[in-house]
Amino acid sequence: MKWLVCLLCLCACLLGGCWDRVEINDIALVTAAAIDLSTPDVIELSVQVFIPRSVSEGNGSQEAMTIIRTEKGDNIADAMSKVQLNVPRKVFWGHCRVYIYGEALARHGLNDFVDFFARHPEPRNRAYVFVSKGKARDILQVMPPLERYPAEVVRKLSDMHVGINVTLLDLQKMFAAGTDSIALPMVELMKPPNEERPKETNPYLSGTAVFRNGKMIGTLSAQTTKGLIWLRDEAFRMTVTGKITQERGLVTFRSIREKTRLKPRIEDGRWKMLVEIDTVGFIVQNGTRLTLDTPEQIAKTEAAMSKEIESEVRLALQEVQKELQVDILNFARQFHRKYPKEFAAVRENWNQVFSEIEVDFKVKVNVRRTGLIAVPAGLPNSDVKR
Amino acid sequence: MLETGKISALQIGMLIYPVVMSTAMLSGPSLMAQQAQNDLWLSPLWASLGGFFSVWIAIQLNKRFPGMSIIELAREITGKAPAAVLGFLYLYVLLQANAVIVREYADFIAYFLQETPLVLIMGALILVCSLAVKGGIEVMGRTAQVFFPAFILPLLMMIGLVFPALDPGNLLPILDKGLLPSVKGAYIPLGWFSEMFLISYLLPSLSDRKYAATSAFFAVVGAMLTMVIVNMVTLFLMGDALDNVLFPIMDTARYVNVADFFENMDSAVMAVWVIGVYVKVSMFYYATVLGTAQWLNLTSYQPLILPVGMLILLFCFWGVPSVYIVKEAAAVAIPALFVLFFCFIPAGLLLWAIVRGKRNRTEEAESG
User: Fold this and answer.
1) If you ran DSSP here, which 8-state letter would residue A322 be given?
2) Among A212, B134, B204, B336, which residue carries the largest CB count within 10 Å?
């Protein structure tokens, strides 16, 4: 019996894991990190650290809930070690969900700035990665009116699929794929509504940054990004406004299901891609005189919406394929899967081949419902075309 | 007989399934992906042939020599002196293999418990395993049975929760460079599957002998299927980045996120890994202890438990200077060693026994 007690006591010593115990009030939770280029050899790392006390004292005051610490360094780890010097708690990356690279750094090249986050055991692969217009640090500094801190704003916008979404894992995959093409969402600060209080604004997703060989070479506007996310099969709750042929006024459609399939073909040495878009949704606004409740009228509407989606997508395709000539549409992956031998032969100069691919579209829109009224509101009944 | 406990065929299956899977859970997918790229799901199929073979040999040997482990039956087949040498080699291989397993486990844990001394992580595991071995085969069988759901369920849950993020298209193009890469990828898991020969130490204690083959068969098939599924899931999630990561299954678990509050499942995967390693290390530990007792003609294996445990701990440092050497050894030498000792030598012994017409009649009469 005595022996057993001794043994149990001995075992208890092993249970604590004493060397690595971490108390919650000994760690500083990083909520976002921003990496900027200071001079070509020096980077500037800014981390936004959550202040736990601000939650318990939460009386709706305008005080910041986070602090920002910025340090310069030769690389991220070096800057990080300097940040730690003036944060009294151990910096913890496990809750960091937003990483923002500054535009200058992105144009200089991202290759050296992924390893730290991929190698470190704490950062989550699901965290989102962005490129900021201007300095990344500025994004962290504002105090958004609706959320607790700016990182939360961009994260929630990303969850709503406003732009393309790229996680740390996606970024690693894009580098590993070796096709030299990367796209990251851009974030930008909204112009402050009240100029006397310039900090009361929030970041928003303003488009897409396009990279070749790890260096940012161009951007796509928010409008073009809409087409891009259709192409990348990331479309989510899209709003499409278009004109029905031979009708006046506009109709707006909102999707609830979206699916894009890329079907590669090689015919007589010509590389072709068929983009098939299927979407289901509602009519949310009807500015025409049609009731939209007969099969013929719905068919017309669906055709109009398909045309509109196609033109949106063509706009994005034009910019990506003909102007930037960077395959951020994953065409390479599709061809690799279906035509491994042919693809291997052109892998080296893929971006050249990519810019010459003929793309066809097959857009299918399915209007499920048209809302709570049977005729267009705001018109006398006599004007309605039944 | 040294071991008087009895276990069921089901428990045997549950003991040898984690022997293969616990190592495969750690870095299996990326090790196979490095060779086989996106054909890595085929590799376990080839590798499992080694498992079927070694288990079949173990069962055939057990049929001829019921109640005997490889150490004892080698003496029956080859005579005293060669058997002594062979027995020593077996014990040495088991000891060294066990040390590598414990060290791999500790190095993995040390990624997260960076400040805890390795010796403590290893010592804690060996202590627990020594208690299991002290309890004998019945205790090991039962703990394996109790822990089995805990080993499987978190894995299934992880796959279910990460499902929406998977892209099955990553499987294509199938057999891009022919069959060879997937066969190359099977080399390392082949070593793990041959470890199933440890069933040889369990079969003498089996209570329902007629189900032995069925249970072992299902354990091999189960391990093979689990590996195929796990390989596919990690490939579907990580695609081209799969061979870059060290611990793909843990990364997959970390990727789980349900409604922003159910996340960080990696602790569950670590728990699975600890349970699996517990069973695996106990198995090797038990085989070493029992084998040594048989080799030395002792009347009980109990006094050997602590010394052998101490030796395992020492071998963790002596035999394994660093993680990189483990990695190199695990990629080339260890699979070859395991296949030699757990497939070819037993097969040679079986062949010899058949040619010389040797079998243990007295034992058979007793049990039959």
Assistant:
1) I
2) B204
Q: Is A64 on the interface with B (CB under 8 A)?
A: no
DSSP A191: P
- Read off the pLDDT of residues A239-259 as tens digits, 9 standing for 90 and up: 999 888 888 889 999 999 999
Q: What distance in Å separates the CA atoms of residue B177 and residue A348, rounded to the nearest whole number?
A: 18
**B241: contact with A, CB 8 A cutoff:** yes
Same domain? For A196 and A341 the reply is: no
Q: Hey, is the C-beta of A337 within 8 angstroms of any chain B C-beta?
A: yes
Contact B173 A178 (CB under 8 A): no
- Find the DSSP H helices in chain B: 9-36, 43-64, 70-78, 80-110, 118-135, 137-162, 180-185, 187-194, 199-202, 212-238, 248-255, 266-295, 305-318, 323-331, 333-339, 345-356, 361-367
Confidence class for position B298, pLDDT limits 50, 70, 90:
confident
pLDDT at A261: 92
Instruction: Determine, yes or no, domain membership for A6.
Output: no
Q: Do B254 and A125 touch (CB under 8 A)?
A: yes
Domain, as residue range, for A304: 237-386
**A124 CA to chain B: closest CA distance, Å?**
7
Q: Classify residue A163: in a domain, yes or no.
A: yes
Please answer yes or no on whether A19 and B115 come within 8 Å at the CB atom: yes
Looking at A197, A221, A245, which one is the last position of a domain? A221
A178 and A301, same domain (yes or no):
no
Instruction: Determine the distance in angstroms separating the CA of B254 from the nearest CA of chain A, rounded to an integer.
Output: 7
Same domain, A241 and A326: yes
Question: Does A41 share its domain with A177?
Answer: yes
pTM, 2 dp: 0.85
Distances, alpha carbon B351 to alpha carbons B89, B120, B186, B212, B317, in Å: 20, 45, 26, 21, 38
ipTM rounded to 2 decimals? 0.81
Structure-block tokens of residue A290: 């049609």
Q: Which domains does chain B have, with CATH numbers?
A: 9-367 (1.20.1740.10)
Query: For A126, which of B112, B240, B255 is closest by C-beta distance?
Result: B255
CA distances from B87 to B84, B91, B237 (A): 5, 6, 45
- Chain centroid to CA B60: how far? 20
A19 close contact with B: CB closer than 8 A: yes
What confidence tens digit (pLDDT) does each residue in B199-208 have?
A: 888 888 888 8
A185 and A255 both lie in a single domain: no
Query: What is the interface size between A and B, counted as CB pairs within 8 Å?
Result: 61
Chain A touched by B267 (CB under 8 Å): no
Q: Does A81 touch chain B (CB under 8 A)?
A: no
Provide, as residue numbers in chain A, all residues whose Cβ is less than 8 Å from the Cβ of B169. Answer: 333, 337
Q: pLDDT category, B367, cuts 50, 70, 90? A: very low
Question: With an 8 Å Cβ cutoff, are B116 and A178 in contact?
Answer: no
Can you tell me the mean pLDDT for A132-139? 90
pLDDT at site A55: 64
**Closest to A328 (Cα-Cα) out of A312, A317, A341, A314:** A317
Smallest CA–CA distance, residue A174 to chain B, in Å, is 8
